[in-house]
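quick one, 339 residues, struct below
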Amino acid sequence: MIKKLTLLQQNLVWAIPISMSLGLIYGYLFDAANLRSLIIPITFVMIYPMMVTLNVRSVFKGHDVKLQVVTQIINFILVPILVFFLGKFFFAGASEKLGLWAVGLFLIGVLPASGMTISWTGFAKGNKEAATKMLVFGLVLGSLAAPIFTKVFMGATVEVDMLHMFQQIAIFVFVPLIAGVFTQMFLRKKYGDADWEQRLKPKFPPFSALGVVMIAFVAISLKARGIIAHPEDILKILVPLVVFYLISYVMLTLIGKLLFSREDAIAMVYGVVMRDLSIALAIAMTAFGKEGSTIALLIAMAYIVQIQSAAWYIKIVPKIFGPPTTETAKGFVPEGVVR
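---
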């Protein structure tokens, strides 16, 4: 089973569109409302494996204060402002769904720290330790800031129950985080660090990939009949997503070239562009009632753009930042999860 899930994880660029297509068919042919009950368990399937593999101890190592501060300033000031105005520009109009898509785009902007930050940084021979810190800081700061930011920026568009949103974030972030840390401690103590790193740790991320595929299926199923009735909605959603990621890559590349070394710059790029779509999707589908499925449609589509753009960017990393140093070129074993 692990081999099949690993294959799924390695081919998410194709697996997610296929899952969404199947969801479209299912949601058109059948009543998908009963799938809502699967959202919470599927979300745990996505998030818990990443928390188990997270190396929290690395947060207390190194001396990269400048890199971490600049990254989180971008994550929590520049990106939220960017997605807010992109939403205003691309989703202007009286239609309710336009406003809800703007909320979805904003949720992507205020929830950084995808687990794939570490993996893509490693693929590009960047600073994985710095990327891990960005992930931990982004998880904590994003979880605390998201309800406040959403209320302040998007409160006029959709009703935001901050307390309920905090509760949902606690369920989807802090409970799995605590459980994951204790799970890792237990397994390290029982089997030893070497066995944990080489044999046990790689078994967790593929389950998260399964969760991503399943939640994409559910999200599209719930909106299938609306999508088929208005196929032009897909284009309306994809254009601002492509613009958002394009602006992000250009901005981060310039900042990285100006301020940081090759390895640190790569970590910063992926520490910002790899948004936490899993948690954003879970929050959309649980914290906004019946409007959540419309919000979730945009977030589900973002998976395709985010993963594909990360793969394209890695091909031009050597041209932008130069070849890896001897230290970082020794090889990389992927860690983290696709989120």
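The CA atoms of residues 257 and 265 lie 7 Å apart.
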